[in-house]
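Predict structure. Chain length: 414.
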Amino acid sequence: MNQKNAKDLTNDEKQRFCNALLTLKQQTEPGHVLNRYDEFVAIHLGVTRRTRNGVFIGDGAHFVPGFLSWHREYLNRFEKALQSVDPLVFLPYWDWSSGDSDNTTAIFTDDFIGPPGDSQNGGRITSGYFVESNWSIHPELDGGNHGNTLVRDSALLTTKLSQLGNFADDAQDAVYGDNDFDSFLPGLESPHGDIHMWVSGHMTSMSSPNDPVFFLHHANVDRLWSKWQELHSGTENYNPNNLGTYGSRLDDPMWPWDGSDNTVTIREGTATNVPLQNLLPTFSDYDVVTPRHVLDNHFTIPSIVKQFLENQIEIRNQTTGDLLTRYKIIGSIPDKFASSMGINDQILTTIGYEDRLGRSESDNDFVDVILEISHTVNQVNSLRGVQLGGDDIQISVNGTNSGNLAKTQDIPIP
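Prediction complete.
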């Protein structure tokens, strides 16, 4: 994620961000029940209602070790959704943890995330981008029974503003005072919860993403986790001993990115008792994310020509930088990989890298990452080939300009 303080956004950045939110609220994929934004609300509600083999296994994202890792992946997915609307949009953070009230007064405005609630209208938002005509709350996802209009406390920028100092102190104590994950996690999750209650209204239920300030709030929580990780770079920065519920252990698939694990379903119970399972989007069998995959939010990438686009390989001439071809990637790429390109058995370049956690190339870890690669062209026939490989996955591309993509399991690159 682009780590930029929401207070420092330009007018254009604020407008683009809000317009992208409104667009997601208006777009519904073919065959889906909810619009794209509300699907994120449903996912956040759904993770609190998991059953496995018919037995309720509880919340997979709150008050468990997976709190931070689950929300990191959730934020990454949401930012990608925004960028599918406008590639220039990114998810900023609301720095409520600094103790500087300007970080808060700057965002609760009509030209950005919206004002506090209207005290004359039950805390409803009556001006700005997120009035009911633009931002109607889906009745099945109104966990707090607040109604169709977004609701917040009316005193956020007046009598309640001074309360943020206490939450900021608690967050700073967690980041800079707690050296083990067992202490750090509740130390951060507690003021995180205080902020939800401080905003009030729709932010107080498990349908809290109904309020778009949720994402700015959690972007800051993730930023604080990243800070703590940087201070504890000698460890994995995650405690696998406190197992919690299924989905919290380092290598547990996190619902709903669990490869369509049919053993995990969502029990019924929306605001009007509609089966929540019926409202959720579906995910690919290849879409598997574990807490281990998101431990490191900052990859060290070899800087060669140009970064890969999201889910695409972009091949450029190493000398001129001209775009040669672009290939779609299916599934995930190992985060430890060797990349080789050959024409008539000629190896053009080989790249390997280690991330900040120092895991070895033998680790069987998969993660969606940004990769870079250099490429040259055989001037005789202009054929080119690409291989990306790891322990048990191989992605091969070859052909002239367009090429074919194949994903083959259990064929490791020698």
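Summary: The chain has two domains: 6-294, 312-409.
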